[in-house]
Write a structure and sequence with these properties.
about 300 residues, alpha+beta, Jelly Rolls, Arc Repressor Mutant, subunit A
């Protein structure tokens, strides 16, 4: 972990308090984070857009817990443990929630354009929204990431050059990927089609539910499309469509103020009852029960 005052690199036992002196100049004074924002902050630092413990920036983010706690920790409303030296990599629009006392660790943020400049086949997998499991890194990797994060903090609080920060972030991601699940996403010759596919899915998943619609748009058969997706993401198109629908529904139910009929209609369901059955089948909770659960969590966070 970085020492904001510089000097000797702190021992692991000192990591709990090394961010206490971060400069006040790192505070952001806008209503929400702009899409080109980048930075590195202590987890306890409240950023614009945080609401009742929830945070949903249109940015890539890396959440690094340096100490285990019993805090309530959700990613897209699914529970995940807070374990020492664990990293969670989130994509734009994913909802992050954490509450339950002081937290030790870091939050790194970068815009989509910066991410696309530095991502490779190994680090791309870390941000697969279908798998939000944490990555526990080895002590060997920590010995690199801790001083590297210290350098990133100094750059962010000093010259704050985006090109230099980007270079550090690329190295940071590469080292995390070494401790990752061992998968890689190599699009190869299908890169253009898959890039087009993901754009089409993001645009139409609420209104188009058939695999054939997307396969036709990218010039592939449904079978071949699912083969490519299985190789690159470990999932099928139907699973991706369902994931997007459920995640969007969770965000609207748990984070918004629309009624269930509005949400069902916006997600392409002709009847609220059909939407409720779909939601419960995938989450185990009715929309009403899920909203109550999220309200209790938000109230409990005290933020």
């Amino acid at each position: 972990m970085p020492n904001s005052e510089g000097g000797k690199y702190p021992e692991k036992s000192d990591r709990n308090s090394i961010f206490g002196g971060m400069k006040k100049g790192t505070d952001i004074v806008v209503d929400n984070l702009p899409d080109d924002f980048f930075g590195i902050f202590p987890l306890n630092h409240k950023l614009p857009g945080m609401d009742g413990g929830y945070f949903q920036p249109n940015l890539f983010q890396i959440v690094w817990f340096t100490e285990s706690t019993e805090a309530e920790h959700l990613i897209d409303f699914e529970q995940h443990p807070v374990t020492a030296d664990t990293f969670y990599c989130l994509g734009p629009g994913q909802v992050h929630f954490v509450s339950g006392g002081p937290l030790e660790g870091l939050r790194l943020l970068c815009p989509i354009e910066m991410f696309l400049d530095i991502v490779d086949d190994k680090s791309r997998w870390l941000f697969n929204q279908l798998n939000n499991d944490g990555i526990v890194v080895s002590n060997e990797v920590l010995q690199v990431l801790e001083p590297l994060s210290q350098i990133m903090v100094k750059e962010f609080q000093g010259a704050n050059d985006p090109e230099i920060f980007k270079a550090y972030l690329k190295a940071f991601l590469c080292h995390i990927a070494r401790s990752g699940p061992g998968y890689s996403i190599s699009y190869g010759k299908d890169a253009a089609r898959l890039h087009m596919l993901f754009s089409i899915v993001n645009k139409f998943y609420r209104s188009e539910k058939k695999v054939s619609f997307y396969a036709n748009r990218v010039g592939l058969s449904p079978k071949r499309l699912n083969e490519i997706l299985s190789q690159t993401t470990g999932s099928t198109l139907t699973a991706i469509l369902h994931y997007n629908l459920i995640t969007h529904a969770k965000r609207e139910i748990g984070y918004g103020d629309k009624n269930f009929k509005q949400i069902a209609f916006e997600l392409g369901f002709s009847e609220q009852a059909y939407f409720s059955r779909f939601f419960k089948r995938h989450t185990g909770l009715s929309p009403e029960a899920f909203r109550r659960k999220m309200f209790k969590l938000s109230k409990h966070s005290g933020q």
